[in-house]
Every structure is written in structure tokens, then in C-alpha cells.
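Quick illustration, no need to memorize.
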Amino acid sequence: MPTLNWIGKDKVINHHQDVPFRVLERCYSYGAPDSGNMIIHGDNLDALKALLPKYEGRVKCIYIDPPYNTGNEGWVYNDNVNDPKIRKWLGDVVGREGEDLSRHDKWLCMIYPRLKLLQRLLANDGAIFISIDDNEQANLKLICDEIFGASNFICTFIWQKRYSAPPDTKDVGYVHETLLMYKKTASFFMGLLPFSSEQIARYQNPDNDIRGIWKSMDYTCRYTKDERPNLYYSITNPNTGEEIWPKETRVWAMSKEVHEINVRENRIWWGAKGRNSVPALKNFASEIKQGRMPWSLLLHAEVGHTDEATKELRAIIPDFKFTPKPTRLIMHLFKIANVGLDDIILDSFAGSGTTAHAVLNMNKADGGNRKFILVEMMDYAETITAERIRRVIDGYSNIPGTGGGFAFCELGEPLMFANGNLNEAVDTQKIREYVWYMETKQPAQNIDLTENPYMLGVTGGTAYYFHYEKDAVTTLDTTFLITVKSKAERFVIYADQCALPGETLSQYNITFKKIPRDIVKL
């Protein structure tokens, strides 16, 4: 498989592993307090890592609209990689070499570690969509093949974003953008889209069949008499008695046995007068798999365009400087990704919050309980992103509210310092959740801590304990061992030190882990 190399790749290819794990601090909740929705303000690389303990492998659909890297100066809606925050990040990570990077090198350095973390958050039956234009589309495809696997590439969708060429057109009138789609594994199944009104109009019921409307289908297939001799046989028109043979170059589409079933079940149409020389199959709408195959061409008539998106956002927040995506487009992608009623959707380049708007619209339409997670690094995360979602929840411009809610979070302290010591400014419960995740790769369990406040949980026959106090040295000794009541085959116990002899640890199947030395860095 071809791979892409660029200046600085060696510095960022594993950079996601070096990013310090930072906790999420809830600032406030809006609307329904237990909605499960989140808006995170902060660098999306840090935020994605902070999400791992609870959400790794659980996100059904990811949609991101990263910087397109047009080369324009200024940082308007993440439109290039010259923002001071990104320049500082490049300098810290890539070093002095970063001063010589082209804008394409900078963009690749920025996006690569973020995609690595997104891949980990994606569920096995999930899919990711990435909006992009021609500036980085080819590069993005190559690094996505590397990160997600070339065999997991599904499609490059073409979205018709405009209904006319832009006024500043010189050589080619660009009216489209592209969206790359990748699945996580073979467990993903493509969703089907609802039938359009035009498609439904093609179904009729001229013979008043009790099974409802139907559409005639070709009764022949592309094979020849020599290729499929069993499909070359005569059929009798019951209305005329005429014996009908298919062409030798295009035989019947089903065997004689299946044809006889079709006759008994009145599934053959010989025309309004019953005298057609070739039969047709009645294809009933009620029996069709509920939906139609997605197309790679996303026409604005079905999924919306940028002008629609601009008017949609202006009705909510009149003063903005965004080029948003239409909610119809994002909802369309959710259907392609086969997003269920209770699934989690993530957007780590949230912008104005279109993804959350689409999730709330879908939940209102079908009573679903889908959950969104947005990440936005810019200061408008509160004034634009969160404000838009508040107004969508409550209603705006005579549009009824969707209901729902969200938690607004900031990135908090790093859980561990560079020297490996725990940051005592971090809430103990968050440390416990982190240790549990690093041991089990599972979200934290809801357990009763009244018997032992140091218990983390039990899984796979192993009980885990985290004997930790911020202001005291903890010891795994006989006194602590008496408090361990879990029924388990094995025990993993963290403490500052251990006073039990090796024989006792072996007798009770205990693995001692020293704090902080044995806490694995994420």
C-alpha cells in the first residue's frame, strides 16, 4: 500500500501517545441534566484523549469538517493552519524543523494525530465522514488509508454545495466538496435511505392487487442460453395461450420452479389488456427492503447547500462568520452510517454546532436518544457553538424547540506530570476512572463504595482496588487485606507501598502495583 511522507511526520506519527491525559471539567449543564450530550471547549487533540476512558470504541458515527487549508491568511472558521495556537503546537511538537514546513506539511502534522485518536474512539460497527476540498483531499485519502486501513475505505462522496458557480470563478466553477467515508471494521453495515416521493410515485396498482402498489420489473437477465441453460424455457401467457420463449442472448431471471410460484401467487403482469408478449414481475413496495441504496453523488436538492446552511444559521444567530454545513446533509450522513436511536455521534471540529443541531432534529423527529459530543478549540465555543444549541433546544424564529440538553466542559488539569507523579489537584474519582480504564479498557463501573471506598470494580474474574490518599502514604498490608470482600479469582491492588510478603500475595492471587510507578500512561 502506498504511504505518504512529509516533513515532520516522524515527529507526529506517535504524538497522540505523548499527549498528556487531561480530565474534563463540567462548567455547567443546560436543559435536560442527564442528556449525555457534551460540548467541550479546548484543543481537540487533548479533548479526544480525555474522551478515551469512557468512549473508546463506542462512537457510532464521526463527522469532522477540518481546516481545508486554502492558504488564506487569517483564522476564520479554521480555514488554514496559521493560527497562533496551531503554530505553537507545531513548534512544540515538531521543533525548529517546523519553521520550514510548507502549509501542506503543517496541515498533515495537525490532522494525523487527531485521526489516530478518532480511529480509537470509533465503534467496530461505526463509520467516519471527513469533509474536505481539493487542497488536501489526495493527501487525506492516503493518510486515512494508513490509519483506518485501505480495505475500510467506503466512498468519496461528492456534495453539490452550490446551485450555481461562484461569482469569482476563473477557470472552473467549483460547486462541490468531497466527503471521505471509512468504516472501522467489517462489522459496519451501510444504512438505507428513505424512498423519495418521486420514487414512491413510480409504484401503482392498476390491477387493484390487495398487496398494494407495485412496480413492474424486467423478467429477464443478462445471461445467454449457453451460460444459463436452466433459465431458457417456455412460458405460457394465460390470457392468450401463447408460448413465450426468452431471447437466446437474454434468458429468464428465475428458474422454472420460481416462475411457477410467481404464477400461483399472481406476481406476473401481462399488461393492462393481458396480451403483452413478454411478462413482467410485480415488485411490491410493501415487500421491498425498507430503503434505497445511498448514492455517491449528494445533490443539493436532497441534502441542502451552503446558502441554505447560511440562512439556517442566520435565523438562529444573525451575527456570525461561518460557512456552515446544512443540517440536512449531516442527517443524511447519519442515515448512511446506520446511526441507531441510542447511538453516539462525535464532531471534533464543531464550528457552529451543525452536527449537534442535526442530532437534536433527528431525536425530535423519531423520539430517539442519540447523543452528541462536540469539540471546539476556539473561543466561540461558548458564544456561537453552545449558543446555537441552546436556541435549537428552546426554539428560535418561530421554529419549535427540540428539547434535550448538554453539558459544557473545559479541559482541566493533566492527570499525571511528565515525571510520572499524580497531579493531586485532580479529583480522586477521575483518577480512579482512569486507572480502571487503563487496566480493563472499560468505562468506570457504578459500584457501592460503602464497604470499601478503594474498590474500582470486578471484571473477568479479577477485582481491582486503588488504595490512594492525596495526603497520606498508603500500604497494602494485612489490615487493608481484611477489608477486601470481593469474590474474585484474582486481585490487582494499587498502593504506595506493600508490606505483604510474596508468599501471601501468591496465596491470595494478588498482584501489587505501586502508585504512581505502575500506573500506565495513556
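Confidence is low (pLDDT under 50) at residues 73-80.
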